[in-house]
């Protein structure tokens, strides 16, 4: 039973991190909590943050003319599926919090007719009808809304996608990648499909400029060892390994990720104690129970008051707001560079 619970906990943590569904997994009691709703600013453009330019993936096959999409448009999504749009889609449903954030940033909210329970940013998204849970989509409800297209996470299984196809719903699976380039590709793809390439190009350029600004400021500074808490407690310790999306963000922010040589998310308490990072970063919902735990109280970061909380959605949701997340982490690691 304990082995089953451990596997279940790991599966939950990985799904939450990869989808950015915003629940807090892996605190001392492994409770699943609601996402924080204290998103301070609601904006159609990113407010801060950034990263080096890389070639986006998952771009449409067709070219554009005068910054306008030429229809019919054929694209290939993350699953390798080819989809042709005869005309510009007028309605859509988002099954991903990160995609929902991007839609609002691209001023496409007027086309959004459905979202998941987890799509809570910006606050205006809460006024859009919820079609329920990410994991078990209500296909009948989606059919009743008759969207021109459904935008989904790459964690959806082929079985789920096939069920939508069987009822005539067009599904585009957006990219979930190991680095920020995947976000650029997602934004470009959405811009092509919905004929808003000017906005998508500006959003990508803004992200790149912001991230480059951060990386330049921290490039010459000594890197502090850092540990990002994905989960902890009775069933194990989980962090962002070197080949993960969050691991990439820690590096861009000028951190030396103590788990950089680990693949995936699973870590050990012994490794954490041996590495004894200078800085620990976690979601605000975890901080009190983490620093009070006997397992972690002797870590230097805990003793030296170097455990910092952050809105985990800024790092775990693969949207334009990761630029803000990189900036926040960089300010924690290198405050002198931002004075």
Describe the structure.
With 339 residues, this protein is an alpha/beta fold. The chain has 2 domains: 123 residues, Rossmann fold (3-Layer(aba) Sandwich), CATH 3.40.50; 119 residues, 3-Layer(aba) Sandwich (Rossmann fold), CATH 3.40.50. The strands form 4 sheets. Strands 9, 10, 11, 12, 13 and 14 form a 6-stranded mixed sheet that branches. Strand 7, helix 4 and strand 8 form a beta-alpha-beta unit. The radius of gyration is 20 Å and the shape is globular. The N terminus is likely disordered.
Which features does this protein show?
about 350 residues; alpha/beta; Rossmann fold; four-stranded parallel beta sheet; 12 helices; 14 strands; globular; disordered N terminus; Periplasmic binding protein
Give a short summary of the structure.
The chain has helices spanning about 1-20, 95-105, 140-145, 160-165, 180-195, 195-220, 245-250, 270-275, 285-290, 300-305, 315, 320-335; strands at about 65, 70, 75, 80-85, 90-95, 110-115, 150, 170-175, 225-230, 235-240, 255, 265, 280-285, 305-310. The protein is α/β, with parallel strands linked by helices.
The CATH architecture of the largest domain comes to 3-Layer(aba) Sandwich
CATH topology of the largest domain: Rossmann fold
Taking all residues together, what is the mean pLDDT? Answer: 85
Termini Cα gap:
52 Å
What ranges have pLDDT less than 50 throughout 5 or more consecutive residues? 1-8, 22-65
């Amino acid at each position: 039973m304990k082995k089953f619970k451990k596997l279940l906990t790991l599966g939950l943590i990985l799904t939450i991190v990869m989808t950015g569904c915003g629940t807090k997994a892996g605190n001392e009691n492994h409770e699943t909590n609601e996402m924080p709703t204290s998103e301070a600013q609601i904006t159609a453009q990113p407010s801060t943050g950034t990263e080096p330019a890389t070639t986006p993936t998952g771009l449409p096959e067709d070219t554009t003319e005068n910054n306008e999409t030429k229809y019919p448009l054929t694209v290939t999504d993350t699953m390798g599926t080819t989809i042709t749009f005869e005309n510009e889609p007028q309605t859509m449903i988002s099954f991903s919090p990160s995609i929902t954030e991007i839609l609002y940033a691209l001023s496409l909210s007027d086309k959004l007719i459905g979202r998941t329970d987890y799509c809570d940013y910006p606050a205006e998204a809460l006024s859009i009808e919820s079609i329920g849970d990410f994991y078990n989509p209500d296909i009948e409800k989606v059919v009743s809304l008759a969207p021109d297209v459904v935008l989904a996470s790459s964690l959806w299984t082929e079985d789920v996608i096939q069920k939508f196809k069987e009822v005539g719903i067009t599904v585009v699976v957006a990219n979930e990648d190991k680095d920020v380039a995947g976000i650029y590709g997602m934004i470009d793809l959405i811009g092509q499909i919905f004929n808003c390439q000017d906005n998508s190009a500006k959003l990508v350029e803004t992200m790149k400029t912001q991230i480059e600004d951060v990386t330049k400021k921290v490039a010459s500074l000594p890197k502090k060892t850092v540990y990002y808490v994905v989960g902890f407690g009775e069933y194990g310790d989980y962090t962002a390994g070197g080949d993960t999306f969050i691991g990439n963000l820690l590096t861009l922010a000028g951190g030396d990720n103590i788990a950089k040589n680990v693949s995936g998310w699973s870590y050990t308490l012994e490794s954490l104690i041996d590495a004894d990072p200078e800085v620990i970063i976690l979601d605000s919902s975890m901080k009190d129970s983490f620093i009070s735990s006997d397992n972690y109280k002797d870590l230097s970061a805990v003793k030296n008051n170097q455990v910092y909380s952050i809105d985990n959605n800024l790092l775990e949701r693969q949207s334009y707001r990761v630029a803000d997340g990189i900036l926040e982490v960089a300010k924690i690691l290198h405050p002198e560079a931002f004075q």
